Amino acid sequence: MGRTEELDRLTSAVTGVQGRGVFFSGSAGIGKSRLLREGVAALPEGEYASWTIAASATTAALPFGGLVQVLPAEQPQGLSPAGILRWAVDVLQQQAAGRRIVLAVDDAHLLDPPSAALVHLVARVDNSVVVGTLRDGEQVPLPIRALWTDGLVDHAVLPPLPPADTTGLLHAILDGPVDDGSADRLGRLSAGNPLLLRELVEAARSSGELASTYGLWTWTGVLELAPSLTDLIDTRIGRLTPGVRAVVELVAFGEPLGLHLLQQAVDPVDVETAEERGLVAVAHSDRRLNVRLAHPLYGEVMRRQCPVSRTRRLQAQLAELLESVGKRRRDDLLKVAGWRLASGTAQDPAMLLGAAGQAFARYDVPLATRLARAALDAGGGIDAAELLATILMFADRPTEALGVLDAVAADIPDNQRLARWLTVRAMVSYWGLSRESTVEEMARRGGKLTDSADLARIRAFEAIMRLHRLDTTAALRLAQGVLDRPAASAAARELARCTVAHLQAMQGQLHRSAVAVDLVQAEVANWRADMPYLQLAVELARGTRLTLAGDLAGIDALVADEFADLADAGDFRLGSGYLGILAAYAARLRGRSDAALRAALGACAVLATSRVYAGLAQAERAQAAALRGDAGQAAEAMAEADRTHAPGMAVLYPWLEQARGATLAVGGDLSGAVDHLTGLADRLRADGFAGHETLVLHDLVRLDRASAPVGPICSDGGRRTVAQRLTELSDRVDGALPPLLARHARAAAQGSPDELLTVADDLDGRGLTLPAAEATAAAVRLLRRRRSAAAGPARERLAALLGRCDVVRTPALQLDAPNLSTREWQVARLAADGVTSRAIAQQLFLSARTVENHLQRVYSKLGVAGRAELLAALRTIPGPDGTDAH
């Protein structure tokens, strides 16, 4: 896995014209031995006489101990050392019997001196080549080192596996896909080392921290070090002097640690020694030199092996060191608070509370929880309780959060804190426990407050809750009232603006929604500390706009920005789960069904214990499964969506009901899907959600219903068609996508293949590969029915689009698909591969005339003129066994 280039290099070193060998060096477990075995095993025995030597510490003290597997047990007596070397070479030549000698030496740094000398001598002999491996940081025998310094072999470093290959290796180890966040964390922790990765996976799986949910492997992040893994890391660390151990332990508990700070605590010479041995690494960070451990697992082992008393002393020492020089950087408070908490020396609730707020603002939910709880235990009062409850809400522990809040209900000292307490309690009760009556309860109690700023906070929360339960008129009125209130805090004002932005996106006012979101983001410095979770409202509004606009590049940027990284790293599941849903949506429109399903499954796994976006994640999973033609999984996901969807998130109904339409269609109930989507379009029209209505009407176009009636009866006694209604909406909904979808609908209604192909080009230009392929498929059907000569080129365009997709089996791609028999499919597939009719007849035990008859029927059914167009045509239809040609 991931070693194709190196394997090719090894093979070329043996079989090439020049015949130079190659030695690969690298860290333990990087895959050197496996690479050597695979390369030698691939050599044909008739051409090469190959021997593999596995040197070891056991044989290093014995003369020719490294070659015990190669040389005869009995050696001739009375020969000089040089004579023995010549004898050994002659033995290898005799055993090779004229074939080229390949001597493969694993762990050549462990060879005894005579064996190393013989390897060097073999490398100089004609008709022989030497390949091998070396471990980094080990003393290499001079005869082996001379191999590349004398130009007898090449020397290459075997690098760590890149992230993509690490993910592939994880898939192979677990026999199933791994969610992106888990793959990334395991890849970083293993540093691309296959052996460490395998040990990490086995330890996490045996401890139950790595488990499969909805067919996707997810790691909790909790690391249990198995004895084999600990021993492996111990071997790499080696024996340490007390001074170097002190360096490594301090860095293990404090990384990244400023070099200047570290040198105040230990002897600088010991720091240099640790760096020389590859235990720590020094790197620039702005104007500071920071020290980190050279490998993430070194810290895990050092922390586990350090006695409790020394652990507490070291962490207290680190806190004192940083406090002595002053907490000058933004994260210094977080570091000191963490060390004080871990060492049992934390006594200042204000410091703990400030650090907890910082951790939560960075979306580090586990750390923020520990610090906020410590602040509450240290006497932090109502402020600590409010923060802890908020964090527990986003850690999917709403019942515990409610208990924390209710425990301090009698201790609220003023109306400002009452307003904060009421909104946090409402948030926990409404979104965490799905209690819809919370909205009225908060509004009633908060309405008694007299301070304008306090009342604005209450109204901002009431507005977004009413939006989420589809009381849109009241939501807009309340949000606008907060924005008009000068005394409102930055957090309350921007929360209200998010409510407006979300509603504007749903109504199709995409430009105004984008402006509103940009205003919220511009104020992030003023609201992040007070209300970091407001970022979720920002992303929901922004994500809704991007999806309704078909802005895949915008979704890519959103999924890749800083919030996504922080949410993943800090276990902020609502954030990472929602972004996973957006990633699945973008992949689906690109026709990348594998990526769409993987991202949707990842979101389902992350949100399994939360009800805020769980239903939406399952709905996107249903869409991804439907895209692949997997009716069973789509129905299962839709049932899960109905079970997990929170009533307080009714605002998400357009997405869920669109997924239900896709599920009905893939299940074969096309008329049911059409009826459902038609009813959904009517509901969206009544609710004023023109942005969503546009996408639902386009779903009807994709189901070949562009001319179907939709909406109420007009003054002329008739009803608008889907195409006519989309044309109306293209003037009301912002952006370039609605007019394009309206053109698609009109072209389909008018039966214009030329316009369909033009629309397909424009859709493809926006990255919307799937709808582009569907529009092209519609054009191909029309051209084939008309027996037009343009059918062949159109089919080739369709094949090219589908070639950029994974498995896609939407009804739009299969409507009116020609039905080939199994025999016709076999004949057509062989013919498309260039097999002659006579060869096909021999292969399938048919007469040549029968083969020609089958081919003529295939040409007629597919509307192609001959074999030149046949492969492109086959790529556009499913085979009789359910597979696609491409």
Automatic annotation (TrEMBL):
SUPFAM superfamilies attached to this UniProt entry: C-terminal effector domain of the bipartite response regulators, P-loop containing nucleoside triphosphate hydrolases
Keywords: ATP-binding, DNA-binding, Nucleotide-binding
One of the record's GO molecular function terms: DNA binding
Ranges for domain HTH luxR-type: 813-878
Family annotation (PROSITE patterns): HTH_LUXR_1 (PS00622), HTH_LUXR_2 (PS50043)
CDD domains in the record: LuxR_C_like
Superkingdom of origin: Bacteria
GO CC annotations on file: cytoplasm
Swiss-Prot/TrEMBL GO biological process terms: regulation of DNA-templated transcription
UniProt keyword Translocase present: no
Pfam families in UniProt: AAA_16, GerE
Protein name listed in UniProt: DNA-binding response regulator, NarL/FixJ family, contains REC and HTH domains
